[in-house]
Write a structure and sequence with these properties.
The structure is a homotetramer of 412-residue chains. The first copy, chain A, is α+β, with helices and mostly antiparallel strands and 412 residues long. Chain A folds into 2 domains: 293 residues, Acetamidase/Formamidase-like domains (Jelly Rolls, Sandwich); 80 residues, Roll (Endonuclease I-creI), CATH 3.10.28. Chain A has 6 helices and 21 strands. In chain A, a hairpin with a 3-residue loop joins strand 12 and strand 13. In chain A, helix 5 crosses helix 6. Chains A, B, C, D: One of its GO terms (molecular function) is hydrolase activity, acting on carbon-nitrogen (but not peptide) bonds, in linear amides. Chains A, B, C, D: InterPro entries: FmdA_AmdA (IPR004304), FormamaseFmdA (IPR054833). Chains A, B, C, D: It comes from Salinomyces thailandicus. Chains A, B, C, D: This is Putative formamidase.
Chain lengths: 412, 412, 412, 412
């Protein structure tokens, strides 16, 4: 290693519009120009803006949440060409560290309006809301959600290699079909390519238009490359094995999270931040076949916050919705019910429901598939760590309502 | 505590037909006669048969899996009347210990025929199969799945209080409605009451008929009382808070598991066993309102097997099925894909797919909801512990096919 | 494995004098007759009496502690001959399970009189005392130390293979030399062979006399074979590698502990119990040379109680004694000081010092060597788990004195 | 919190002689001038040089180890005055983060010559040696000890408040007495005040002379204030409760370690580094009496690297030295033997003894007091994490000697 530390493969400028920065992009497309070259075996630092590119401010209003422009997101850093990587290889990404930027030691968790983005519980909680989190070393706390403080399980929400033209076509076809099948539904079921606000890095106009027309949106994770998988445990020390679909891999990363709960239920639900990720890259030649790999796999790092199994309260939810309707092994319904059970539990201490919705999105809650075969009920669980609260939330302790202030709401 | 140990609230006889034993029953109904009375604060031992009541044998054929009679299951021990418990209370169940019966130190994991019970992957793996597990203290191993050995996370698959008549009606109504709505589907979506093979404990004929006609099947867990929630972490030292719906609570327990993976994907998927559970009971008066509780909650015990986060390989799955069809935030589809990814990975070492399907059902795999809001893809993960294998399954090690024998299949 | 479970290699009878039972012995000597033969690869159950052979009773007086006859202890079960084992081999002992005897679900922790046995803090706490612990499944609690309850980290205090005649001579020589060098000291520094109350299993008179004259006492662990190493983490699932010094290994085990703290400071300091241990034996031919092994090594099992690192309060102690005298890198003095710091801390809650001394001996406290090179001060730490108390002992919570009753003391 | 992050209470300059920097000092004395003032409740960043003040270089020779000037060490940053703190209070120090300096991403572990500093095993390994460690995010590896890589448990070796004049006199008296009592010994047993190379921060000449004459050396931790306790678990997220002896507390910190093993056996045994520590300070008024506190206590943070208990090999050592001499409950002798057992074990893989001695000093080995009452043998254990090696060191795997290169030695 160079004695003075690893080089920066890319830096960002928080005082400049994300759309103007050439090492950022906001669509998946094989033709986005490379942001630099990295050697196999090399470790580099990569800076990232927050996923919205700075649209959300450190203040006490959720107006910015309400007004967010989702055609702009997510701003990713890259793509980087990894030398020797070819289609069929596996790119091994070792996450050596993730840190907030020193000049911006805070992040945000948000709830979008049901009319603009929505979230997992938007039928019940349709309004925008926001919490700002201050970072104190490895810990964070929020003036908008008093009484909690926890160590971040810091990680990137998005990382992946570029799709090939063929993979990209598969994505657009199958998501397009879902959109047409669900046209009767009252909500967006997927996001088609969107030329408006496309950012294709340093691409010229022709490529930029092509990317706008064909480029896959960054919102969903996808089986072929990972992408926005929003896995809370991809933290310091993790190793991720990513399928390579194009020459040079064209790796991008972004959407850094100081912390996230399983499910990231409010959609803008992690503690979103700008930051710097240190990665070591290696190439496993012919890895996809060797590992018989269709989707990414990973091995978590050794330094996750540990609470001890007996320091969680677990809530159960089943595939019967809040109106009493029975669903057939619907795990999504079950997990929504599980989330509601936690909200009902924590509300007793004086929090409003939006505060709890925000908290479950970003705190290190454990969301498990428990039983998925006992017809007709899927059962999921959510483990809430007792020790992130500075008062005792145990069921054997009588709940006392406290003044918990409020999260940020919109001005009108 | 009595100096000589806790009393047995119920014992079972493995040499006698389960249907003949008066402290067992196989439906949920408020009128099943009590199997005994327990004082609040008391700790008792309760023996249980395996969930099938002995239909599965320690041999090398899956014929018994194919021929299983599902109208008989699950055989539960109880119901026990807990003194002072009344509707609206919460029954606190502290699981002090769970042990296999000394005279039967083995268990089984099974895959049912798609025609008779099925399981999570039955479209792909429609045939019956079986693995027998030998217990060596806290560990288990199987002649049908060589190369693995692990400590059990021992727990009851089913525990809960009896439904009131009103709760029972709710169950029958909503599940009946699902059945009628799904009559076009090629498979059972729920099980209605079934008089055939009903076992109502020591009930007389009239009650038995009533239970047969109205009694809820034990297969699904249900939000109002828990029941067959199949939560792998309800192990030694756990505390479970259960809603009480009838006077005396009428608590039943059964379906003991030596170990289970999140999801228990093959349905008969845990390591099913006969055993003894030691429970301390307490009553929290008015607990449902105090805790604002609609479904059970629990706190795991402190002695779960610990592998360290870096000793899991995690697999990702998304809501795109194996034919390439895109689903809208369907977590069940995502978890099925996640399971298939693990099968593909482990197949490289010489296991057949049924062996792996069995293993993922019963070994302590961690099934997580990762992202559930990134339209259209739900993302789930499954963590496979490296250290349950006696060879190195790490991705950086070249996979060598071994002779892994086979699980048990049917004779014809 | 036999379908009906592992065989008992030895059973004990709690209603019979330990000195009369042929499979027990209380000295280390190669000539003690074998108590049975075990095949390599075999798993057996071995029952053990408590280390005192039943001298301590479940009552509220410490008279039995004061009057204990230490010439009788420890009663071990064995020795067992492991087929094929020869000097120079390593005996691999896999501890599959440890359980209390069902008919005796309680144990004891004691402090001996400074005049008869003593303990780590006997200069300060010279009087006998006792606590009785009731087992509730994996948990224990004591009427003599209210306010605490914890899961046992159950293990054998003693296991090892018989010394050869040569090894035995080494022991007797070097300990004899210490005794003569320390004759000026006010206390026993080691225990020489003691014919009185020797128990040599089924030996005839001649052998019994020889064992009495030469047999090593069981109190110290010793580097050549382990023995009474009192390691709290040798629990369920552990693998221990033991040097073999005689043909057949002649393995013995006993001194079962339901739980113990690092140091077992009060000497009779674990939760001492009668019980049954299930062990799988294997022989590693030529293992001592292969592993370059002089003393036993082990790998703990995976099911230790987990509290999370942030759920311990750690106390520091240095090699300056309570009179202010400075010692040179004396870790024993440092650990004594560390223990005293915890006593001072817990005393604030209403416990008397003897209760705490007992508690630190048997609860799962973590005793660490921190710094051992910073002349002149060795520094050790003791981690006290917060979650074994049913009230909050955190330093930020104001300590309130409670009525904590008392441990058992002598009648006069 | 200020939106732009916490302020630096002190910065260091790696290009300038440590002895010239006014915020550093290298003795404990109440009269060293304050380096700044911190408010209770405030969080600040504090930079530190490595403990030697840059005497050790990133190269492949141990000449700098041999030639080190120990009159200069340790360079600490401070002392800081914490507003409102007074004698008898407790200073609560929350370690929010510790990081290496970005411009110096490496550290060193050293063995001093027996003639100049020595270490725990210097009778056996008297020569200087060195290993340089490169930091890769949270991990480190060394060209001098191939085959290992691990996550750092990063922490300060030294933190504490200044002694009062009275406390200082106690230290000098009792250590002086030890020195005179041990004048016959062949080695330094303690370090008296040393005017040569004293650094008293920004003090004028008179104070500097006083500090030189009276100031306590920083090498030992001491019960009254902690100081150089070298506790490996004082890492990110820890809370330390420190006794206050002078007005303003006069807190100092330094000797940052990227990682350390229990005991830090080679003396310069941690991975020593320059870095930045982020601390939140609070004052607990009258805390010493409230907590009945004589020595510091602490609560570790939640993010320690976790290996799982079954991923350690534990070695046992007893108080019989390598010449066969028996000691009476000498835990220091036992821990030395334990260390030697690990060296013998690891030597089989091709490492030289000095490489292993260095490794055990700095890798996260667990050093436990096991039994400390079984006369005459104290028993200690050392747990070696299997997963820090990139090959399998398990005892069941045949050891193969590899080319492990060498650590750095002196040039002649």
């Amino acid at each position: 290693m160079p004695e003075k530390g690893h080089r920066y493969a890319a830096k960002v400028d928080l005082n400049k519009d994300a759309a103007e920065q050439p090492y950022l992009h906001n669509r998946w497309h094989p033709d986005i120009p490379t942001a630099g070259t990295i050697k196999p075996g090399e470790t580099v630092k990569i800076e990232c803006v927050d996923w919205t590119g700075g649209q959300i401010k450190n203040n006490d209003s959720a107006d910015d949440m309400r007004d967010i422009d989702l055609t702009k997101i997510h701003y990713l850093t890259g793509p980087f060409e990894i030398e020797t990587a070819e289609p069929g290889d596996v790119l091994l990404v070792e996450i050596q560290d993730v840190q907030p930027l020193e000049e911006q030691p805070w992040g945000f968790t948000g709830i979008f309006s049901k009319q603009n983005g929505g979230g997992f519980l938007d039928e019940i909680y349709p309004n925008p809301a926001k919490a700002i989190w201050d970072f104190e070393g490895i810990h964070c706390s929020s003036r908008h959600i008093p009484g909690v403080r926890f160590a971040g399980l810091i990680h990137p929400g998005i990382l992946g290699c570029a799709p090939s033209a063929e993979v990209l076509k598969t994505w657009n076809d199958r998501e397009g079909q879902l959109i047409s099948e669900c046209s009767h539904m009252d909500r967006d079921v997927a996001k088609p390519p969107e030329p408006h606000n496309v950012h294709a890095g340093s691409a010229g106009q022709a490529i930029k238009e092509k990317v706008g027309k064909e480029g896959a949106r960054t919102i969903p994770g996808r089986p072929e490359h990972g992408g926005n998988c929003d896995i809370k445990n991809l933290s310091r020390g993790s190793k991720v094995y990513l399928p390579v679909h194009v020459k040079g891999a064209k790796f991008s990363v972004g959407d850094l999270h100081f912390s996230q709960g399983d499910g990231e239920i409010s959609f803008c639900g992690a503690i979103e931040m700008a930051g710097c990720i240190t990665i070591k890259f290696s190439v496993m030649k012919g890895g996809m076949k060797k590992l018989d790999m269709k989707s990414p796999i990973y091995i978590p790092g050794p330094v996750e916050p540990q609470f001890g199994p007996g320091r969680y309260i677990y809530f159960e939810g089943f595939s019967v919705d809040e109106k009493g309707k029975q669903y057939y092994l619907d795990t999504t319904v079950a997990y929504r019910q599980t989330s509601l059970r936690v909200i009902e539990y924590l509300r007793r201490f004086g929090y409003n429901d939006y505060q709890i919705y925000l908290l479950l999105s970003c705190a290190p809650v454990q969301g498990h598939v428990a039983g998925i075969v006992d017809i007709p009920n899927a059962c999921t669980t959510m483990g809430l760590p007792i020790d992130i609260f500075d008062f005792d939330i145990s069921p054997h302790v009588e709940a006392v309502k406290r003044d918990m202030g409020s999260c940020a709401f919109t001005s009108s």
